[in-house]
Each structure stands twice: as C-alpha cells, then as structure tokens.
C-alpha cells in the first residue's frame, strides 16, 4: 500500500500548513523501533520522534495498539492517538508467527534504539533477548519499561502506571487528609517512566558515540520512575522516622502555599518566600502578620500556618479569581488559577509559546494538539507527520528493508503482516 501524504506541523507555528523551518533535527539519523503499546513506551517514542528520530512502530495485526480506541474517538480512532503517535510509521506484524519475528529482527538489526514495554520475558519468548539482539546489532540500545523492572521478586507481576504510582509513594500523598487517595488525573506513572527512558536513551546514544559504539540495556520500572520524584520522602523517614502524609493542596513544611477559594473558583498562591510573604500580607491588608518577627522565616510561618491560611482565605473568598490574580500579579506574588482544557486553549501565553498546534490528521480533519517541548534554539522539535493508520507504512518500510513486492504480497496472504 502507498504511504499517505504526511502533513507537516512545525513547533514554531499554530497551523499545520506553515512551511517547515530549515533547521536541523537533534536526533536526525537516529532510527527507533517501537514495540510498546498504550502509554509508557509510546510516549518515549513520541518524545524521540518530535526531535527528529525516525520511529517505526510495530503494532499487532487486527486492532493494533489499544490506545487507538481509548477515551474519546473521532472517525473511529482516539484523538489521543493523534498526539501519541505523531512522527511515527506503523508496521502491522503478527508476532506470534515466526516470519513476523524474522521481520522484526530485520528492522531491529538496522536500528539504533529498540523501545519495548511488555511484561519481562516477552521478548525472550520471541527469541529476541538482549543478548541475541546484541549479537545481531552490537550497537543497539534497548529500552525496557515494565511495572517492576527486569529483576527482583516482583518482576513477573503485571504492572500499570497506577500501580507504579502507588508503590512509588505518590498515591499516598494525593488526597485530602484521611480521605481516599486519588489519581493525579493523567497517567503520571507511565509518563514519568517514559521520560526517564528517553533520558536513558539519550545518555546511551552519547556513550555509544564517545566510547566505542557498544549498545546497552536500559531497565526502567514504573514505580522507580515515580519514586525518583518523591523529593525528601525517604531522607525524612531515615533521619526522623517521619512518614509524610497526605496534605491536600498544601505543601507540607512550606508556608504559605495552598489553594484558596474565590467567588468563582480556586487560586493557588505560593507566598512562601520571606519577601514574597510580606508583599502578600500587605496586599490582603494583614501587615500585622507581614511584620510579625516570628513569621519572618519559613519555620515560624509553618508553626502558624492555620492562622495564615485562614487570613488569605478571608481575602480571596470575597473576590473573583481574576481579581485575586490581578492584585497578586501587581504585588509580584506567585499565583495561578486552576486551568481547564478550555482555559488552556483560550490562553494567550500558550499560543505565544506555540504550545497549541493545529494538526491535520490522516482522516482529513484538523485537531489541536500540544506543542513540542523542550524549546531548543538550534534544533527545535517539529511535528513532521500525523499519526498513522494501522499498518499504513508496512509496505514502504518492508520494501526499504529489502523485501520485494511479491514477498510482501505473500506475507499479507498468510496474515503475517497487515
């Protein structure tokens, strides 16, 4: 089948029809085979693809990556898919068949990076252990993302991002005191694992280039990626026996930093710097607190946080969110409204920073998607192609790998490819 025409969206514009900037891609020439599905592995692939890596996504024949059917669908495909799978090519293989496994090996043999987020042992069951793949491609960098890692007593247990958030210590803290732990609202465990994986891939690429060309295995566990972001949780337990507990919207031990009610919503206020606290108290008409000697430092404010929070809430409750934002902005006190999707799409700062891009899908409609980060002056990320349909690129990729049209037709007739 022919490859659909890819629409280019740049990270320097908010429309899909603007010209492609003539700037080099940071990862141009890096070839990635992505064998993962859903979130963690594919988010890593998306990150590398945004900065120029050629990402070939191997999907199962039939339905493909389950993310295609997650959450809200348009024309039968998730709009989430349009973000997660941009800058990728889709090759559909039935990896239960030996011939499909042989094709996968052929693609991996020419790759710089392999991404997989299967349960440990899955690759080995297909005859694709790291040792076997490194015999085939000594420079291959293999990123393995799993619930509990490739070793340890829990390695064979199934693990999703939510489980990683629980074991990593995050879920214990995301609640109001005494109430049920809640989701962050997005798949934070998967995303953190993907970002740690991307960092690992970049370090391994650098090491391979600087120190002899050998590849290596990167082992990322979902819970460890979450745990790595838990700040002082363990040192505090080690030094003081203190078990940090849920604190709702407050930042324990840092004062004042909390969410405060307004007439029409909530505002987050971070008045925890010494000089910021004084300006905040002046703004709300409480110079008595701003000038109190025992509140000049954070330790004193923590001791009286209930009183301080109450004073701030009295002031915010009688005002709208915008009135609070205007007053605190003028006083140079960090504050922020709680944004919804509508707020983000209407916000001028998001637009000015090119964080809202209009992407033309292969189904023919336009959809607004998040822009590319981080912002890089010399090698900015771009959206070079829209998300593929299942198997859109199978023929083109296999032809590039050396298969003839007759061989491709035969493989399709056997159900090896789609």
UniProtKB/TrEMBL annotation:
<dbReference type="InterPro" id="IPR044855">
    <property type="entry name" value="CoA-Trfase_III_dom3_sf"/>
</dbReference>
<dbReference type="InterPro" id="IPR023606">
    <property type="entry name" value="CoA-Trfase_III_dom_1_sf"/>
</dbReference>
<feature type="region of interest" description="Disordered">
    <location>
        <begin position="1"/>
        <end position="22"/>
    </location>
</feature>
<dbReference type="InterPro" id="IPR050483">
    <property type="entry name" value="CoA-transferase_III_domain"/>
</dbReference>
<protein>
    <submittedName>
        <fullName>CoA transferase</fullName>
    </submittedName>
</protein>
<keyword id="KW-0808">Transferase</keyword>
<dbReference type="GO" id="GO:0008410">
    <property type="term" value="F:CoA-transferase activity"/>
</dbReference>
<dbReference type="InterPro" id="IPR003673">
    <property type="entry name" value="CoA-Trfase_fam_III"/>
</dbReference>
<dbReference type="Pfam" id="PF02515">
    <property type="entry name" value="CoA_transf_3"/>
</dbReference>
């Amino acid at each position: 089948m022919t490859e659909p025409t890819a629409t280019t969206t740049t990270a320097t514009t908010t429309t899909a029809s603007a010209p492609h900037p003539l700037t080099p891609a940071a990862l141009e020439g890096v070839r990635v085979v992505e064998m993962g599905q859903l979130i963690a592995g594919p988010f890593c692939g998306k990150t590398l693809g945004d900065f120029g890596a050629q990402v070939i996504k191997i999907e199962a024949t039939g339905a493909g990556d389950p993310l295609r059917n997650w959450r809200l669908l348009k024309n039968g495909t998730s709009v989430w898919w349009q973000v997660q799978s941009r800058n990728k090519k889709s090759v559909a293989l039935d990896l239960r068949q030996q011939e499909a496994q042989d094709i996968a090996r052929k693609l991996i043999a020419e790759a710089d990076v392999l991404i997989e987020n299967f349960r440990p042992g899955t690759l080995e069951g297909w005859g694709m252990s790291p040792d076997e793949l490194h015999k085939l491609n000594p420079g291959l960098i293999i990123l393995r993302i799993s619930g509990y890692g490739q070793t340890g007593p829990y390695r064979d247990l199934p693990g999703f991002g939510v489980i990683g958030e629980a074991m990593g210590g995050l879920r214990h803290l995301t609640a109001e005191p005494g109430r049920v732990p809640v989701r962050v609202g997005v798949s934070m465990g998967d995303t953190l694992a993907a970002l740690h994986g991307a960092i690992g891939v970049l370090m391994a690429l650098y090491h391979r280039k600087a120190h002899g060309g050998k590849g290596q295995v990167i082992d990322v566990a979902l819970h460890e990626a979450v745990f790595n972001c838990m700040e002082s949780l363990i040192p505090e337990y080690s030094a003081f026996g203190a078990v940090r507990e849920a604190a709702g919207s407050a930042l324990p031990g840092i004062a004042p930093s909390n969410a405060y009610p307004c007439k029409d919503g909530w505002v987050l206020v971070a008045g925890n710097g010494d000089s910021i606290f004084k300006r905040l108290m002046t703004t709300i008409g409480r110079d008595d607190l701003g000038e109190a000697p025992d509140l000049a430092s954070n330790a004193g404010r923590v001791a009286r946080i209930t009183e301080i929070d109450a004073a701030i809430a009295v002031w915010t409750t009688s005002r709208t969110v915008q009135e609070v934002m205007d007053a605190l902005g003028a006083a140079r006190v960090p504050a922020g409204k709680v944004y919804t999707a509508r707020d983000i799409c209407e916000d001028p700062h998001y637009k000015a920073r090119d964080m809202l891009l209009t992407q033309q899908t292969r189904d023919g409609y336009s959809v607004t998607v998040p822009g590319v980060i981080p912002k890089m002056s010399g090698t900015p990320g771009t959206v070079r192609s829209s998300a593929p349909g299942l198997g859109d690129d199978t023929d083109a990729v296999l032809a590039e790998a050396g298969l003839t049209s007759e061989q491709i037709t035969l493989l399709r007739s056997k159900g090896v490819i789609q």
